[in-house]
Design a protein that fits this description.
Largest sheet: 6 strands, parallel
Distance between the termini: 43 Å
Structural class: alpha/beta
Radius of gyration: 16 Å
Length: 167
């Protein structure tokens, strides 16, 4: 069984967009283990997500660096086949490298990308949607078709919305 880790610790909008590659990875690798790292506060978006095996939460308020090293150690223990870093930040680059997956994919603009096994260009202003830039991270594992973001609200979430809408 293949093991994937997707790292996206930015803000809520970025987490919604990263669901596109979770969907596509599951479509192409339905038996794979797909884990996700998000920042504390965004984890509620993924509660009950049917394709996520383990949701890792990086709580930066507990001491950003200490929490990063502690989480990276737990990630390393899983021995991922593919770590997909969906950000261009030093901290997630360090997390990706420390987790030591067999393949580490990320954007070439990440300061630690020289340590990744696969680097992808991330160009803003070229007319492409962010979903297409995210897809470039996994095209070699899937295909070139555009994935679409998708949320998986729980029954409890739907009931809350229905109550608000008085349906």
């Amino acid at each position: 069984m293949r093991k994937f880790l997707v790292v996206q610790t930015a803000f809520l909008g970025a987490d919604v967009l990263v669901t596109s590659i979770l969907e596509k990875l599951h479509t192409f690798h339905p038996d794979a283990r797909i884990d996700l790292v998000v920042r504390k506060g965004n984890d509620g978006l993924f509660v009950g997500h049917p394709f996520i095996h383990t949701l890792h939460v990086w709580n930066k308020r507990e001491g950003k660096t200490r929490a990063l090293f502690r989480l990276s150690g737990r990630l390393r223990d899983t021995r991922y086949d593919h770590i997909i870093n969906a950000q261009r930040f030093l901290s997630t680059g360090l997390m990706t490298v420390l987790a030591r997956g067999a393949e580490q994919v990320g954007y070439a603009k990440n300061p630690l990308s020289f340590l990744f096994t696969r680097r992808v260009q991330h160009v803003i202003g070229d007319g492409r949607h962010e979903v297409d830039r995210l897809n470039a991270l996994i095209e070699h594992l899937t295909d070139g078709s555009r994935p679409m973001p998708r949320l998986h609200p729980t029954a409890k979430d739907r009931a809350k919305v229905n109550a608000l809408l008085k349906i």
